[in-house]
């Protein structure tokens, strides 16, 4: 809070430049756009520079932090560059190797200035020039929570299509691989290979950590000891249908763009159903953070985006390539061999609980050492997303305590 207040004071007094939408803000090293790097090994560190993380520059959370660029892969296995960050706690640790958390953050927006390794140096910022937008680093308290307990933290920004710069949103498999590759790259910055490793993810990050727990052979040198998989988007059609018409309608635009860059064939399949307004609204959402999406599309319906006047979830359900892609991304066909805490919320107004219960049963039947928790928090009216994010922060101590207990 002190560092945040000081940052606001400096900007009000004109002592420091207000961060803008362009990469390369003073406190955030920039490595350029994602590029294809054929033949390079995944997990290779490419670039790194010190990062000034808000709340981790001194007491009570002293840490040395780096933003880095590394090699990972897209859905087709082609090598690309991606970015992430690693924070090394300097708190005393005496009970064996210091544990580490590999974290896949929840959705903060798909534009580059929304990347968690960018926003963690800013915290909060509003853009008053059109299009209106806002940076809200709502995963930063979770990162600082783990640091306060003496754990190192690695987190990712999610991979992007090099041709368009669009995030591969909805591609949990590519996200999972990028998370494991980020751990490998962090070892070249000082993360101990002996560190007991835990996976942590919520919402979009829950899908990534769920897949990372399932991908036991992708990175044999990375062996997590346990995973917390929070509110994963198991059935993507159900998620799109649930958010449509609520405050978080803009998430549908993220999904549309992420699917469209998957292949030229899928691009043509999806774009054929969008009308002029639909294309315009998708572009508005993918160039802003989650705060801007609330203003751009909150409480609108995707009916207005299609030629047929039909919600996008219903139309996508009839597109063969989209159906195949969503089927490929669905969790549950493989059982994680590590202990998993899977959780969801009964009244979630973003990611419905029933598919998560089905995932619970599927993993349990296949032998996963599973712990289940279902939040019974009462429904907050208004379809604001509070029923989604509220249980996450309310149960942070419980879920993180379970993970830390499996690492120490």
UniProtKB/TrEMBL annotation:
Keywords: Hydrolase
Pfam short name (any one): LIP
GO annotation, biological process: lipid catabolic process
Superkingdom field: Bacteria
Coiled coil ranges: none
Entry keyword Hydrolase: yes
GO molecular function terms attached to this record: triacylglycerol lipase activity
InterPro entries: AB_hydrolase_fold, Lipase_secreted
PANTHER family registered for this protein in UniProt: LIPASE 5, PTHR34853
Name this protein carries in UniProt: Triacylglycerol lipase
Species assigned in the record: Corynebacterium glutamicum (strain ATCC 13032 / DSM 20300 / JCM 1318 / BCRC 11384 / CCUG 27702 / LMG 3730 / NBRC 12168 / NCIMB 10025 / NRRL B-2784 / 534)
């Amino acid at each position: 809070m002190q560092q945040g207040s000081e940052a606001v004071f400096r900007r009000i007094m004109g002592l420091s430049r207000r961060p803008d939408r362009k990469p390369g803000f003073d406190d955030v090293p920039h490595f350029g756009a994602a590029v294809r790097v054929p033949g390079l090994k995944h997990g290779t560190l490419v670039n790194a520079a010190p990062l000034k993380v808000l709340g981790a520059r001194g007491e009570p959370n002293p840490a040395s932090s780096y933003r880095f660029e590394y090699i990972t892969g897209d859905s087709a296995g082609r090598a690309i560059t991606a970015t992430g960050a690693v924070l090394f706690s300097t708190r005393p640790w005496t009970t064996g190797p210091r544990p580490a958390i590999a974290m896949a953050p929840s959705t903060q927006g798909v534009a580059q200035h929304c990347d968690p390794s960018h926003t963690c140096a800013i915290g909060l910022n509003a853009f008053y020039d059109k299009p209106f937008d806002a940076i809200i680093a709502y995963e930063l308290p979770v990162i600082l929570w783990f640091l306060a307990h003496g754990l190192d933290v690695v987190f990712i920004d999610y991979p992007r299509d090099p041709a368009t710069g669009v995030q591969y949103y909805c591609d949990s498999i590519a996200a999972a691989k990028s998370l494991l590759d980020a751990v490998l790259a962090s070892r070249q910055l000082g993360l101990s290979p002996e560190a007991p490793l835990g996976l942590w993810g919520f919402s979009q990050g829950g899908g990534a950590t769920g897949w990372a727990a399932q991908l036991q052979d992708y990175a044999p040198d990375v062996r997590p000891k346990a995973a917390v998989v929070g509110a994963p988007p198991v059935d993507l059609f159900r998620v799109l249908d649930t958010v449509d018409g609520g405050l978080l309608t803009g998430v549908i635009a993220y999904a549309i763009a992420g699917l469209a860059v998957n292949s030229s064939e899928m691009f043509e399949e999806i774009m054929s159903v969008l009308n002029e307004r639909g294309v315009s609204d998708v572009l508005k959402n993918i160039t802003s953070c989650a705060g801007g999406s609330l203003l751009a599309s909150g409480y609108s319906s995707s009916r207005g985006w299609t030629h047929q006047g039909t919600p996008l979830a219903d139309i996508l359900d009839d597109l063969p390539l989209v159906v195949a892609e969503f089927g490929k991304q669905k969790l549950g066909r493989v059982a994680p061999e590590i202990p998993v805490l899977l959780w969801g919320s009964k009244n979630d107004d973003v990611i419905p609980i029933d598919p998560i219960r089905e995932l619970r049963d599927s993993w349990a039947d296949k032998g996963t050492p599973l712990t289940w928790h279902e939040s019974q928090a009462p429904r907050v009216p208004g379809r604001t997303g509070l029923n989604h994010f509220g249980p996450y922060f309310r149960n942070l101590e419980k879920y993180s305590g379970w993970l830390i207990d499996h690492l120490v």
